[in-house]
Automatic annotation (TrEMBL):
It holds the Pfam family HIT. The lineage of its organism: Bacteria, Bacillati, Actinomycetota, Actinomycetes, Kitasatosporales. A motif (Histidine triad motif) lies at residues 97-101. This is HIT domain-containing protein. Residues 6-112 form the HIT domain. It comes from Streptomyces aurantiogriseus.
Amino acid sequence: MDDDCTFCHLIREDRARWVTRTPVACAFAPLDPLAPGHTLVVPTTHHRDLFDIPPQTLSATVALVQRVAGTMRTALGAGGVNILSASGPGSEQSVPHLHFHVVPRWPDDGFSTWPTDRSRHRTTGDAFTRLAEALANPTDPTDPTDATGVTDAVDVP
């Protein structure tokens, strides 16, 4: 837990409107929901972002995202969901604790969560070639992926 983290405070002090909780991840209502049922899913331990979380904890957190999303379809009649997350500097991450917004969507809901603008940033060379080469030849010895870029399977309860 991080003493300065808003989400850690909510978890530790049991002050959220809980949707569900597991030992590894929890889901709760945000203060300003974008839609009826909009839910935040966070790991129960403090991890700043996607780059700071162990694969097993990420897997359990995303499994809860999937469970919440599926329940939005059955319990709320949502036609689909948007999963929103931001990680790291420049990403507009609002709280430095990894979190996923699970937003239920209906055909007539009248709003969009999809970006309408394109990035002005440019890279040297083809970005997709650079990504493919980096994934095929990892240089980080702590990288949990093999040379194919496939993460080892992890059993999630």
